C-alpha cells in the first residue's frame, strides 16, 4: 500500500475540518458586516450564542470536528507507526471520514438532528471498530 493511499483518509478529515473552519469564519464575518451580530456581544457571551443560525451551525460543526476525530487521528497515526494500515483499516478510516462529512453537511445545511445523529453514531461505531482492530493486532 502506498503512503499516499494510506494517508488519504487522514488528509481528507483534516480538509473537512479546514472547510468547516473557513465556513465558520466567513459566516461570522458576514454576520458582523451585516450587523446581525454586535461585536460587543462577542467580548462576554454570558452563556448565550450571539451568532445568527447559519454562523452558529458552522461554529458548532467546526467544534464537533475537533472532538471525536481526535480519537481518529490518534488511532490512525498509531496504526501507521505500528504498520497496521492494511486495506481493511484504511477502508474503515474512509467510512469514518464519510460519516463525518455527512454529519458536517447536515449540520451546516438542514441541521436535521435525526440525520446528524445517524451520521454521528455511524462514525462513532466505525471508530470503535478501528480501535478494537488496532488493539487486537497488537
Count helical runs. Answer: 5
The SSE string, one letter per element, is HHHHH
Counting copies of identical and different chains, the oligomeric state is single chain
Structural class, judged by helices and strands?
A: mainly alpha
Let me know the CATH homologous superfamily: Membrane associated eicosanoid/glutathione metabolism-like domain
Output the radius of gyration.
Answer: 17 Å
Helix content range: over 70%
Strands, total number: 0
Cα shape: elongated
Query: What average pLDDT do the residues reach?
Result: 93
| CATH-assigned fold name | Four Helix Bundle (Hemerythrin (Met), subunit A)
**Strand proportion:** under 5%
The number of domains is 1
Biggest β-sheet, characterized? none
Low-confidence segments, given as residue ranges, are none
CATH secondary-structure class:
Mainly Alpha
Second rung of CATH, namely the architecture: Up-down Bundle
CA(first)-CA(last) distance: 20 Å
Question: How would you characterize this protein structure?
Answer:
The protein has 138 residues and is mainly alpha-helical. Helix 1 (3-33) packs antiparallel against helix 2, helix 1 runs parallel beside helix 4 and helix 4 (87-108) packs antiparallel against helix 5 (113-137). The mean pLDDT is 93. It has helices at residues 3-33, 53-64, 69-81, 87-108, 113-137. It has one domain: Four Helix Bundle (Hemerythrin (Met), subunit A), CATH 1.20.120.550. 75% of the residues lie in helices and 0% in strands. The chain is elongated and about 55 Å long. It is built from five helices and no strands.
Amino acid at each position: 500500500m502506498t503512503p499516499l493511499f494510506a494517508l488519504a483518509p487522514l488528509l481528507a478529515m483534516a480538509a473537512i475540518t479546514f472547510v468547516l473552519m473557513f465556513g465558520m469564519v466567513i459566516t461570522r464575518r458576514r454576520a458582523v458586516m451585516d450587523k446581525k451580530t454586535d461585536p460587543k456581544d462577542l467580548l462576554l457571551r454570558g452563556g448565550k450564542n450571539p451568532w445568527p443560525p447559519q454562523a452558529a451551525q458552522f461554529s458548532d460543526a467546526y467544534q464537533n470536528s475537533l472532538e471525536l476525530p481526535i480519537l481518529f487521528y490518534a488511532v490512525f497515526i498509531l496504526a501507521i507507526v505500528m504498520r497496521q494500515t492494511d486495506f481493511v483499516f484504511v477502508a474503515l478510516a474512509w467510512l469514518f471520514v464519510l460519516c463525518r462529512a455527512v454529519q458536517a453537511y447536515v449540520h451546516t445545511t438542514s441541521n436535521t438532528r435525526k440525520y446528524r445523529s445517524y451520521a454521528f453514531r455511524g462514525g462513532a461505531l466505525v471508530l470503535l471498530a478501528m480501535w478494537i482492530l488496532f488493539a487486537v493486532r497488537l
